[in-house]
Amino acid sequence: MQTIQQASQTHAAMDYHAATEAVSAVVKQQLTPKVADIDLKGEYPREILHQLGDVNAYAHAVAPELGGTGLGLKAAIQSIEEISKECISTGFMAWCQVACTWYLQNTDNQALAQELLPDIATGKQLAGTGLSNPMKHFVDIEKIALTAEPVKGGFRVNGMLPWVSNLGPGHWFGVAAKIADSDDYMMAVVSDDMEGMTLRCNAHFIALEGTGTYSCVFRDVFVPDARVLAAPCDDYVLRIRPGFILTQVGMGLGLVDSCVELMKRTNKRLGHVNRFLDDQAEDIEADLQMARDRTYALADRLDATDGIIDDQLLREVIQARIAGSELSLRAAQATMLHAGARAYVHGSAPERKLREAYFIAIVTPALKHLKKMLFAMPEEALTSVVS
Question: Which residue ranges does the record assign to the Acyl-CoA dehydrogenase/oxidase N-terminal domain (predicted)?
Fold first, then answer.
């Protein structure tokens, strides 16, 4: 398996700034005019997602021979961050796409990676994650939703996943299921093109409405061995989990950055009274820079692990994700308070930031989920993280 570290060394000449600027150009030209439609009308920005793929927004954590840039997780996080400054819905879908590339980059099923990864990394094929339920199941929060019965040539899968995002006709997404009559689990990538699977849209959300979020019903869906990421998947889950969690921090970094800009803008008119609020733009901005530095450093360390993740690194990743959630909530509230009554107008930018910040704290792994994971870790190691 090609490691991200090796790929990064090979392509060290590529410029992080240029990669971010390419994403920023698509955001400004294509995404900015559509944010209200995505947020308030639930419009799914399919063409914009393809255009972001054209500028490698999803390709950085993927080895070059599999369609990626090889720049690594830091560049992947920076792309999600850049998109999220403007729109968390689209930033979240970019994360879904990156997460699916991460599954395929880290599988030992190289035939599957070679078949699907180039098109997913470049955004020609859109993809989701589908791991909210299993990630919660693996820390004893809820029961596993899917079961997989071994059959000749693969597995027969049944059950229902309540919400999977960045889906549409023909999109790929990852799933995990408990293998029948065993204590093991399997992970695979599937599509609604598979016979027996249906997508249902049965909920409306206060935010993130335009994210292609569906319930997925599996009725005797045959998943061939060729689509299996790992079975059993214990070691594989340990390998992908830190990247799954850390790349989400990009959403929080982008949202907080935009909140700082909104507060500074508001202060041109209301700075004389906003100075009495506890959280000032400069305070949030300083904490944002610390969060950025911490997240980027962790991304570089993950790239260098060659898939071997120790408990200490996982703890630090969880702490970074917690910090991203808490800073998002704090920044969004400060933005509302800075803007005052104008923020209370339906559809205002501060109001949207507040709704988006709650999503960052609730999306799997949610803030309470992350803190439960930390609670379950050895106390002596936790002390070394906080000290």
Answer: 18-124
pLDDT for residue 3: 52
Distance CA(80)–CA(91), nearest Å, equals 5
Q: Which residues contact 23 (CB under 8 A, 6 or more apart)?
A: 52, 55, 57, 79, 82, 83
The 3 state secondary structure assigned to 144-164 is CCEEEEEECCEEEEEEEEEEE
pLDDT tens figures, 338-371? 999 999 998 899 999 999 999 999 999 999 999 9
CB contact set of 147 (below 8 Å; sequence gap of 6+): 157, 158, 159, 177, 178, 179, 180
Q: Of all residues in the chain, what percent are helix, strand and coil, respectively (each to 5)?
A: 60, 15, 30
* pLDDT (tens digit per residue) in 36-52: 999 999 999 999 999 99
* pLDDT one-digit tens code per residue, 262-306: 999 999 999 999 999 999 999 999 999 999 999 999 999 999 987
> Residue 94 contacts by C-beta under 8 Å, 6 or more apart in sequence?
49, 52, 57, 58, 79, 80, 83, 84
Please say whether the dihedral angle defined by the alpha carbons of residues 279, 291, 363 and 97, taken in this order, is positive or negative: positive
- At 106-145, the pLDDT tens digits run 999 999 999 999 999 999 999 999 999 999 999 999 999 9
Q: Are strands 172-179 and 146-151 parallel, antiparallel or unpaired?
A: parallel
Q: Please report the domains of the chain, with CATH numbers, ordered by start residue.
A: 4-126 (1.10.540.10), 132-233 (2.40.110.10), 235-386 (1.20.140.10)
Residues 87-105 as b or e (16 or more Cβ within 10 Å = b)? bbbbbbbbbbbbbbbbbbb
In this structure, the strands spanning 214-224 and 197-200 are: antiparallel
CB hemisphere CA count around 239 (13 angstroms)? 21
Helix axes 249-274, 88-105, angle to 10 degrees: 150
Would you say 119 and 125 are in contact if contact means Cβ atoms under 8 Å apart? yes
Strand stretches in the chain, DSSP E: 127-128, 146-151, 154-164, 172-179, 185-191, 197-200, 214-224, 228-230
